[in-house]
Design goal:
The chain has 206 residues and is an alpha/beta fold. Helices cover 39% and strands 17% of the residues. The protein has an 8-stranded parallel β-barrel, surrounded by 4 helices. Strand 4, helix 4 and strand 5 form a beta-alpha-beta unit. Helix 1 runs parallel beside helix 2.
Length: 206
């Protein structure tokens, strides 16, 4: 697989992190491997915490010319000077968010396992579509996205696609041939050495 064919890495933050320690960990990860985009995906609804985290992460990633998008919190994009938003409701709010943020903002849409939702989100103006989980999680209904969705998408649709959720060396070796981006989060952050784990996983893309 050539560099042009290899999918790019789309990194997702942990849902919670310590602002005293995580910035250094993140910087080490970003410096270890080429990263296309970082998504701040905090579970908290605390505005102050989101603002403080966004300020810190923005400076780290923008210093490396990496775009930063925030999960769900559309109002925070302009307040924090971020590059865009990652929506988790499929195609439902893409069109309105595009109107609100304008043409320059990155808008991504997570569409679960639904090819139909992905197509609708792309038609509504999403810059990328995310499908997942790729691997079994044991959560919710236990559904995983059919690999054929990525195969079909890569052949028919021009909107870039992200594969995410329970990725490992085995399914990465398969999915990397038919996706534009690989979304990695818990796969590396649960390791004692996230940067080393990321390097190890990305060897599956070669």
């Amino acid at each position: 697989m050539t560099d042009a064919e290899r999918p790019q890495i789309y990194l997702v933050t942990p849902p919670e992190f310590d602002l005293e320690t995580f910035p250094d960990i993140l910087a080490a990860v970003l410096d270890s491997t080429e990263i296309a985009c970082l998504r701040m995906a905090l579970s908290t609804q605390d505005t102050d915490q989101i603002m403080r985290s966004g300020d810190v992460l923005r400076d780290i990633v923008h210093a490396r010319d990496i775009p930063l998008v925030i999960q769900s919190h559309v109002a925070m994009v302009e307040r924090l000077g971020l590059d865009g938003v990652h929506l988790t409701d499929g195609a439902r709010s893409v069109r309105q968010v595009r109107k609100d943020l304008g043409g320059d903002a990155i808008i991504g849409a997570f569409c679960g396992t639904s090819r139909h939702d992905g197509m609708s989100a792309g038609e509504a103006g999403a810059d990328y579509i995310s499908f997942g989980p790729v691997g079994a999680t044991g959560l919710d209904g236990g559904e995983v996205v059919d690999i054929d969705v990525f195969q079909w998408w890569s052949e028919v649709v021009e909107v870039p696609v992200v594969a995410e959720g329970s990725l490992d060396e085995e399914n990465l070796a398969t999915i990397s041939k038919i996706t534009d981006f690989i979304g990695l989060g818990p796969e590396i952050w649960t390791d004692n050495e996230p940067a080393a784990r990321l390097i190890s996983l990305t060897t599956s893309l070669n």
